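User: I'm designing a mutation panel for Cytochrome P450 and want to avoid disrupting the core. Could you give me a predicted structure to guide residue selection? Please restate the sequence first so the numbering is unambiguous.

Assistant: Good idea. Sequence first, for numbering, then the predicted structure tokens:
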Amino acid sequence: MTASPPLPTARPRWPGEFTVGIARSPLALFTRLARAHGDVVRFRAAGRTFVVVAHPELAREVLVTQQRRFVRGYAHRTLRLLLGDGLLTSEGDLHRRQRRLANPAFHRDRIAAYARAMSAAAERWSDRWERRSPTDVEVDVAAEMTTLTLGIAGETLFGTDVGDRARDVAGAIGDAMRVAPLAFLPFARWALRLPLPHVGGFVSARHRLDRIVYGIIAERRAAADADRRDDLLSMLLVATDPEETDGEPMSDEQLRDEVMTLFLAGHETTANLLAWTWLLLGRNPDAEACLHAELDAMLGAGPAARAPTFDDLPRLPYTRSVLAESMRIYPPAYAIGRICVERCTLGGVDVEPGWGVVTSPWLTHHDARWWPEPERFRPERWSEPAPDRPKFAYFPFGGGSRICIGEQFAWTEATLVLATLASRWRLELLPDQHVAPLSRITLRQRPGARARLVPRSPAPS
């Protein structure tokens, strides 16, 4: 056997630089290292060895071809303290069983049913904007989209009768997420036992979440019509594994973990996608005009615009392209971490068990080798003839057996919400704003973009 070439190794400019960087702004650290060292780079942080891979083919190796040699990354281990063993954090046989149980809730016919709630919620949000004031109303775009998608997540997951408790769940998750910067560090599990300011909030949030979610589960089990409801929780209550002869439904603890996972993933990532989309449209009036032209032709404009339906989705290609381009520039899941458990080779170099491996949609989505003018917002690139680029040059929902189970749910929700609101409103960005990506568990805005609500009028005939 010939020895593998040594991994390019990044050296910190000062002691602890990488440890601080991975805790404060992992996105900035990964970007700097990839630009300085290329497609594969090793570095040490917090006593651990990490490898960042920036080439699409290497991302495919980690997530698909050699996925059995990896398990979920360090951040997911810390998330498990909050989310338990849900689809986002579980491993092995448990993950495969839970995915089989949850799959029917995300079939096309189920998403079509959820689409009605999504579209209705967006209409109510438009009416809410209308009631606030006809002109010159300023909003925090990220906060608006978070609250809207929170309501959609609560309704599709729990049904229509737990709105207040859905908001309580979101508030508790927000409190718990303040410890997110600790997630990448090796001492995270121990740090959460220390009397630190955010730690107390994390523990309190965990107790609040358990009380709320277990209460909803108990009520739903006792309800006479539980098996006739259309929400996700009701489907999970009666789901059984098709590969088990005498399949048992989920326990209360399993249900709690899946509910927590779906609730967090179901509103956090979509809210971020929509917030970034409004920002990009506000900065690119030509793309905004093309979006309005498509929506006006299909739905109308202004107060008379009709609500989009699930059947309208194939007839809104530019709207989908706008969202795809937004996810390219600002992928909500900007990095996907794994831990090597079996020695393997990536890009011709050896990776040892125990090393953390990071693949990053952000890095590949901004790579000029695959995306000409990568910083430019061009929805038209999604309708042009497909260039010869690797599949994993674009992977906002991950890949392999752990690809996001809610991908089509997210596409449906984001398209319906954007189409409903953009057919009736323009969000005019306020001047002199500097909105930067904040890399936590997902890619948020810092601060949230501020915009003026401008009602749209029907186009001249």
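For picking mutation sites, this is relevant: Residues 252-283 form the longest helix (32 residues). The first strand starts at residue 40 and ends at 45.
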